[in-house]
Amino acid sequence: MIVRELVRDADAVEVREIERDPSKVIIEVRVAQEDMGKLIGKQGKTVRALRSLLHAVSLKQGRRYVLDIVEE
What we know:
Blueprint: H1 2-6, E1 14-21, E2 24-30, H2 36-40, H3 45-61, E3 64-70
Parallel strand pairs: 2-3
Antiparallel strand pairs: 1-2
């Protein structure tokens, strides 16, 4: 939901949850090529903030979440 609000082409956003084992989950995000810069942000600040949010969720749920931005 957060990523859709950050990009211009919200319909192109794909988010997949890949469970590697019971304690680790990879969140794979794909966006349109022209929105890649918006998702990463200046000096990586936006993607760093998203990773901080995932870290907070990780602590609360006792699982490790990893954000993976996939470039096509």
